[in-house]
Amino acid sequence: MKTIIEPFRIKVVEPIKMTTPQEREEALQKAGMNLFLVPAEEVLIDLLTDSGTGAMSSEQWAGIMRGDESYAGAKSYFRFEERLQEMTGFDHVLPTHQGRASERILFELVGGEGKVVPNNNHFDTTRANIEHSGASAVDLVVDEGKNPRDRSPFKGNLDVAKLERLFSEVGPERIPLVMITITNNSGGGQPVSLQNIRDVREVCRKHNKPLFLDACRFAENAYFIKLREPGQGDRSVAAITREMFGLADGATISAKKDGMVNIGGVLLLRDEELYRQAQNLLILTEGFPTYGGLAGRDLEAMAQGFEEVLHEDYLAYRLRSTEYLGVRLLDMGVQIVEPPGGHAIYIDAKSFCAHLPPEQFPGQSLVCALYRHGGIRSCEIGRVMFGENATMELVRMAIPRRVYTQSHVDYVIEVIGEVYERRQALKGLRMVYEPPALRHFTATFEEV
418 and 339 in one domain? Predict the structure, then answer.
């Protein structure tokens, strides 16, 4: 079938404010040219993030009504726990209010001065929580993952040879664990192969170190494995998912992505002692272990979301509709990170704004231009977000789950095409205000 058909019907609609260019310019200037600071009401198509911005199903909303709000031992927790145990094979399941809470708990326990945490690519909150503990975050993605034009099927892979060299250079005693982000968000939403997870697992076993997954988009990664990895095509996404988690000693999950909910997170652990320590820290900072800073209704919605995300008709629609956007942009000459990822399309801002030097933040300039011209909100993933750690200058168009139709995507394509035609007119930016951490959320800019 060539037509992308959404595997759902629309039951509730939310109006979109149709803003004028003058209104958008005023909103942009008031926000210091940072789209994080623009009110959502002033955005036509919001592709800032796919985190917590999706539409929940009728079954999830029914779960909201069933939520047991008992402080301890609520039946909603046990349904959530049972679903996570079935899906991942982990016995120890801790709910948190979102993924960064899971990261903070984990790295408060295993991080610290002098420690080094390798990953394919750390995303923003992961890196920030590692560095907040005093440890160093090291990116070891394969070289193909740094080239937007490379079409290798698993550009998110962690380079095993680089990992071995890191163990030799810093010593195993300084590495508390190894992480793999699936899919690799900072690297263009690129998937990680099952074989790569197995290979990294062997390195961890050799050095007696735990392997953790940053598993925000585990289902999309599993579906890519089914589509692209030899020998995996006849397996179910549920079986591939179970094997991925089975290779790990722990995982952090933002349920706001593949959990299909607006709030929620998970911390999975195998080690009993680490689990007890994490549980105590959870009680101190998040809430009792059977609610983890969430309401019972949120646990119900998460349990249902973690079931629905493994439906393969949904995943086929999800990946194909994202691919549609990427292919249309390539056809117009707009370079993206190839091949298209599962949750987002990443425009190569270095290529798009070739006339702007990196110190003038070409990605942020493009973000502002897309909002000015068409009211589209997107996200810079480059020098603004990662500073000198940035390997590419990207603009991410993250697709909220089950929110926009193909006509919305066609509008996005039109806007990007029109901005591309006049790209030489885009101006560089200088940073006016810079916070000490996660600066992309609140930094402000002015045009050079």
Answer: yes
d(CA 326, CA 315): 17
Q: What is the CATH number of the domain that holds 253?
A: 3.40.640.10
Domain annotation covers residue 3: no
Do 222 and 241 belong together in one domain? yes
Query: Nearest to residue 64, comparing CAs of 299, 297, 306?
Result: 297
Question: Rounded CA gap, 323 and 37, in Å?
Answer: 29
Percent of the chain with pLDDT over 90: 92
- Verify that 138 and 39 share a domain, yes or no: no
| 251 shares its domain with 370 | no
Domain that holds residue 431: 21-50+311-447
102: its two tokens: 């899971």
297 shares its domain with 363: no
CA distance 373 to 251: 40
How far is the C-alpha of 229 from the C-alpha of 217, rounded, in Å?
A: 17
Q: What is the pTM of this model?
A: 0.93
Q: Decide if 2 is inside a domain.
A: no
Count up the domains in the chain and report the number: 2
* 246 shares its domain with 114: yes
So what's the pLDDT on residue 416? 98
Question: Helices 21-30 and 362-374 sit at what angle, rounded to 10 degrees?
Answer: 140
Distance CA 134, CA 330 (A): 42
For the stretch 18-67, pLDDT in tens is 999 999 999 999 999 999 999 999 999 999 999 999 999 999 999 999 99
- Look up residue 18 and give its amino acid: M
Residues sharing a CB contact under 8 Å with residue 402, sequence separation 6 or more, in sequence order: 6, 8, 54, 55, 57
Ramachandran quadrant class, 369 (left: phi over 0; alpha: psi -120 to 50; beta: rest): alpha
Task: Report which of 342, 313, 343, 310 is spatially closest to residue 83, judged by C-alpha positions.
Answer: 310
C-beta neighbour count of 341 within 10 angstroms: 30
Give 376's strand partners. Answer: 45
Token pair 């993206």: residue: 336
Fill in the amino acid letter for 68: D
**Domain end position, chosen among 308, 338, 367:** 308
SS3 79: helix
Strands (E) located in 41-146: 45-46, 92-96, 116-119, 136-139
Q: Are residues 321 and 250 in the same domain?
A: no
Would 330 be classed as within a structural domain?
yes
Write out the DSSP string of 202-243: HHHHHHT--EEEE-TTHHHHHHHHHHHSTT-TTS-HHHHHHH
Please indicate, yes or no, whether residues 269 and 418 belong to a single structural domain of this protein. no
* 301 within 8 A of 310, measured Cβ to Cβ: no
